[in-house]
Each structure stands twice: as C-alpha cells, then as structure tokens.
Amino acid sequence: MEWNLVCRNYWKGALVQSFYMLGVFAGAIILGGLADKIGRKTVFCWSALLQLLFGVLVAFIPEYWIFSAFTFLYGMFGSAGAFIPAFVLTMEIVGPSKRTKCSVAFHCCFSFGMMCVAVWGAIISDKTILQVVYGLHSLILIPHLWIMDESPRWLYGQGRVKDAVQIVQKALKFNKSDIVLDTAEYVSKAKAERFFQKKTTVAKTKAGTLELFKTPHIRNMSIIMCICWFANSLVYYGLTLSSGKMEGNPYIIIAVFSLVDIPSYLMVFYFLDIWGRRLFISIAMLIGGTACVIAAFLPEGATVTTVIIVIGKLFIAASFAIAYNYSCELFPTVVRNTALGLGSMFARLSGALTPLITLLESFDAKIPAITFGVFALVSGFLCMFLPETMNKPLPESIEDGENFGKGDTLFSTCFRKKAKKPYTGDEDEEATQSMVVNSAAVSS
C-alpha cells in the first residue's frame, strides 16, 4: 500500500505512530483497571488473542484512516493489554530478591524483539508480508492460556483463598519443596482478617483509579510516577525516532539502538539492588536529560553527537526499566495493575506526542532535544521525593499503601543517620508462604 506520505502528507506518517501510542494510552486506562477487577491472566489472554488478530489484519488494510484505526486497536491490546498484566503478575509471584531479575528479563525480551524488527525488515522487502510476520509473533503468547496461573495475590484480594493456596502449593511442588500449606488455616486467617478489617475489605472491592488520588501520600506518589512515565517515554521514543535520521543503513541503526538497551538492563540488574530504586532512577534520568540538552547544541551527524545520543539512550532505557519495577513496588496490590496502567497511560500519551514534537524541528532543530531533556531533568529531580522500596514487602491494602514509606525521601535518607539491617535473602522463603495472606512476611 502506497499513500504518498511526502510533502503535504508528511504529517500523516507521524500521525499513524501517534494513533498506535493513543491505542496503548486507551488500553492502559481500560484494560489496566479491568485487570484489577477480573484478573491479570484473563486480560492478558484475551489481549494476546486480539493482538494476534489485529497484528495480521492491519497488513491488509488499503485505506489510510481505517489502517490508523486498526493500528490504534493493535496498540491497545498489545503493549497495554498483554504486556502490563503479564509484568504485574510476574512481579506479584516472586520474592523481593527476584523482582529485579524478572524486570530485567522482561525488558531484555523487549530489546530482542526490537532487534527482530530490524532483522525481518532487512530480509523481507514486501511490506504486507513483513507486517504479517510481525503480527504472527503473537502466536507465542497463546499457550499461556494453559501454562500460566493467575496471580495468588490477586486471588487472595478477591477472597479466593483456596485457589491462591493451590497455585502456591503447585509452585512449591514444582520447586521440589517439602513445604505443605494448610488450606483450612489460610482460609480461617482470611475470614478473621475480613471480620476485623471490614473497611479495608470494602476498599479492596471498590478500588480503582480514583483510589490513587484520594489519600495524600498515594496521590503524591501517583503524580510523581505519572510525570516520570511521561518523561521516560518522551525521551526514549524521541531518541529512537531520531535514530531514523542518522546516516547509514536504517535497519542496522535500529538494531544497534536496540542493542544499546541490553547494557542498560545489565546495569539495572547489577546495581538496582545495591543503589536502590529511587537513587538509580533519579541519576539515570538526570544523565539522560543532560545528554539530550547537550546533543541539541552539537552539530548534527557528528560522531560526538551520536555518542552523546547513545549515552542518553543508555540511561533513559535504564530509567524506563526501573519505572516498571518501581511502580509495582510502590502501590498496593488492590490498585497495582491500575497504577502501572496509569503510568503506562501517561507514557503512551507522551509517546503519541513524540512524533509531533519532532516535527517542531522545522522551526528550530534544537527544540525537540531540549524539550526531551528538560522533561527528563524535572522528572529525575521529582523522583528523589519518592520512598525507597528495595527489599521491602509489597503493600496490600490502600491503608498499607498510604503508610508505606511516609516521610522517606532521598534527602531525609541522606541526613538521617540510621543503621541499616543487611538483607539476608531469607525473606523469599517466607514470602512464598505469605503470598496467600494479607501481606508478605518479609524481614528487612
């Protein structure tokens, strides 16, 4: 299909990219909250099926505006509907010492997928066949309908304690553990908690997006994380789109830019559990933002400019990966998927704006890069006011979330001389059993 997207129609190319991001934006709003109501696995499996369907169908749409509409739906059920619930589910079933590893593994797969985009693009010249190949990659998600279990944390929050215990017991058996969980005991504990914490239980059943803004501490965290997601996406996709304007083979450039993410994730893997989430994400965004501003004043196409852009991409990719991890740990179980969906919503909003912001270079080539840099710098500073979550149990109820890390900022930590108890790793064994009760019994 040829739509002659040049000269007067140049803007239509950027608009299609914006439609995709707006689809992810809508998916984050609708499907993020839905996953907190009907389950992570249910939303993931249906989204995977629809992602496969729209990913293939979009290749055969001959008309521009219908193509844009299908692209919108493709984004809605792909990045939002499939990725976010799967990420949340994974983070909810592992202990504190494994969260970073799982988060890094997710993002490495994303980079590998981007490299596959470049490889297939270099091999297949027919654009229709190319899109069909891209769409068929979703086939690998379909078997999860049978091999993936629902989140025990979510099941417990819904009062389905027996189902939660069965899944944890299945995991223990798979890991060849001799631990046997007493289902009756956990059911009894759950009933006692519901009796003595009726207000909390009501909050759990009615939890939604508005819960993120009702109480002051959770509201502050929500606003800062929304800004963080917005800035990360703006800079990440802005630098990625800028790579298309570099001299050389576009497929090699895309592959190299995707490959740059791998050392970013390795950096996260090795240092996130040493430096902590708050310090690392703040430093990464400040360096990434500074790189963008510096690149704006360097000659286009120069080697030093390319190096600075790559450095910026390196640190922004790291902060983007941390944002997923951090969001899951900051917010309580009853609104965790909603919180991650809200953050992703702001990320896709900025992602939709990114192609349009790059068009501002027609007025001044410096405007896009400076815009990206300023957002990253402001966000990096604001993240310093978030509480640290490293090696801490996940909050469960809204009340837990409101009390979680209150008064804990980077500045209060620096000025407060307090002995820190070392992390031993023993909490993972405890967290395995306590996954089916109100909060993970994790020793800090």
From TrEMBL:
Gene3D superfamilies: MFS general substrate transporter like domains (1.20.1250.20). Residues 432-444 have a biased composition (Polar residues). GO terms for cellular component: membrane. The chain crosses the membrane at residues 15-35, 42-61, 67-90, 102-123, 129-147, 221-239, 251-272, 279-298, 304-326, 338-360, 366-386. It is found in: Membrane. Keywords: Membrane, Transmembrane, Transmembrane helix. Pfam families: Sugar_tr. It is a multi-pass membrane protein. Residues 421-444 are annotated as: Disordered. InterPro entries: MFS_dom, MFS_sugar_transport-like, MFS_trans_sf, Sugar_transporter_CS. One of its GO terms (molecular function) is transmembrane transporter activity. Residues 1-391 form the Major facilitator superfamily (MFS) profile domain. The keyword Transmembrane helix applies. PANTHER family: SOLUTE CARRIER FAMILY 22 MEMBER (PTHR24064). This is Major facilitator superfamily (MFS) profile domain-containing protein. It comes from Pieris macdunnoughi. The lineage of its organism: Eukaryota, Metazoa, Ecdysozoa, Arthropoda, Hexapoda.
